[in-house]
Amino acid sequence: MKEEAVIQVENLTKKFGDFTAVNAISFEVKKGEIFGFLGANGAGKTTAMKMLIGIYKPTSGNAQVASFNVYKNPNEIKKNIGYMSQKFALYDDLTVKENITFFGGIYGLSRSQIKEKTAQLIEELNLQETVNQLVGTLPLGWKQKISFSVALLHNPKIVFLDEPTSGVDPITRRQFWEMIYETANNGTTIFVTTHYMDEAEYCDRVSIMVNGNIEALDTPKKLKKQFNVVTMNDVFLKLARSPSLTLPFGKGVKND
Amino acid sequence: MLPIIFVLPIIQLIILSNAATFEVKNIKFSYIDNDKTSFSRELIEKFDASSYFSVQTDFPSTKLASSAMLNGEVDVILEIPQHFERNLLKNRITDLAVTINAIDGAAAGVENVYINQIIQRFNKNAQTELITPFDLINIPKNIVSIPSFWFNKTLNYKTFMVPGILVILVTMITLFLSGMNIVREKEIGTLEQINVTPIKKHQFIIGKLFPFWIIGMGLLTIGLIIAKVLFNVPIVGSVGLMYLYTGIYILVILGIGLFISNFTDTQQQAMFISWFFAVIFILMSGLFTPIESMPQWAQHLTEFNPIRYFVEVMRMVMLKGSDFNDILPQFLKTLFYAFIMNGLAVWSYRKIA
């Protein structure tokens, strides 16, 4: 099946001083795909992602996201994407409902739309009892699920998830991936970074970044075949170790 | 947090307005009377009678008096020489030695003025007593100045300080709250989330400004009520005018705060810079030291000090009843300042790194 590409990246590069965090990466992500963006800490995944969502300016190269150019129309991109950062980013001192109302408002949803969405989320996530609690008092698993739902409030074409399940228990992780599948089935493209190699198996296609370069990009099945191993974990270990280049210590970008 | 934002400034206003005064009272006064005549005793009685001096002891020698000053037991030593009375009667001239502890230079200056006044009064009395009929012709008529203090008839320090301290409170609270604000969101990570939304820069800044503006105006209201009810400070001018000016003034401070917030990465950094500006702004505002007595270059610097204008306007409107035309220069400068600072705040807020 031939589908349109919603993310097109060509030679995208980001340098911080002398340090090249992302080195001329190129790839495409298709509509409705779950695209896994893998790499060790400091490999440059978060930096690459931040260029795509319009909060880092690329040093060179080009990228189209949701058919908008990252240089020319960052604001149009922002209207069409959802983002969930690895740092939990809802307001702790607002209630769940207030957070939904606030972010709904920022994305320009009308009052009735917000009301409708809130009711829908309460139903889907069983938030009846927690909706008026401060977000800061909720367990992390809950927060992540709510955070994901808030990122989807405005029906974005693409959702970027930056290590959405780090620090979450296995059951919640499973539930979280069910939410991701459901979202992808509705036609939303998922761009997800992760450390968990079992999660990589759930992705339609996976790219693995090492030292700012994309070293591998294919379906998990083909990657395993290519490297002649059984699990994605082994693929990752082989790749991350093979050039025996130690990962950049201390030079890496914050948060990655 | 919200109650704290309001309660602390009120406590500050009440304490500071009562405590911050330029008057020097309870001056520890001691003397060395080497003359021990009716004249010298009369002079000492004059100090005793003054409410500013509390007469401590007489010292038999200069040495003992000096060591008492070293120990901080006395502030002022008056040494009356031998033959004080005789010289005064015979030669019409004599000396007095006054030693003042000038660890606190400002207080020493004030003490000096008090002492001189008392001695002069004594001098005049002595003159009248010593006048002979022959002298009457030659005595120059004394020129007596009778001061009348406009806008603060009794020179009540509270009347003078309360508007100023109110200004500082409104400034500090709004500066620190706004200075911490964006940087706090940077620290928690919510700012990144905001930055990936299509929110416009000015929308974001206005959203940040508005709550603090309301808090600032709330503080002004409470402060004015306290000034009136507790300190009975006259509010001669238009309250509406004060609100109008304060509304614009707070925008300046918030703009500065947000500007600082944009340029810092942690709340500590923001706090440090906010403190730096707060201290300079307050000490150079004319609240504690008159701007007229600063060196020329410092006077020019105060042109950039928003607190200076706020202090001027509040005092003018509250105590003098100035109207809009009187405060127009300050008003326009503040308005201009507000545009500049908020322009900079919007400009320096980067959604893209």
TrEMBL record, chain A:
Membrane topology: Multi-pass membrane protein
An example Gene Ontology molecular-function term: ATP hydrolysis activity
Pfam families cross-referenced by the UniProt entry: ABC_tran (PF00005)
Segments traversing the membrane: none
Example of a GO cellular component annotation carried by this entry: membrane
Residues of the ABC transporter domain: 7-236
Compartment(s) of residence: Membrane
4Fe-4S recorded as keyword: no
Keyword entries, A-Z: ATP-binding, Membrane, Nucleotide-binding, Transmembrane, Transmembrane helix, Transport
Name listed for the protein in its UniProt record: ABC-2 type transport system ATP-binding protein
Automatic annotation (TrEMBL), chain B:
Pfam families: ABC2_membrane_3
Bilayer topology annotation: Multi-pass membrane protein
Keywords, in A-Z order: Cell membrane, Membrane, Transmembrane, Transmembrane helix, Transport
Domain of life: Bacteria
Keyword Metal-binding belongs to the record: no
A molecular function (GO) term: ABC-type transporter activity
Family, per entry: Belongs to the ABC-2 integral membrane protein family.
UniProt-recorded name of the protein: ABC-2 type transport system permease protein
Domain annotation ABC transmembrane type-2: ranges: 124-352
Cellular component annotations (GO), alphabetically ordered: plasma membrane
Record has Transmembrane helix as a keyword: yes
Organism: Lutibacter flavus
Subcellular location(s) of the protein: Cell membrane
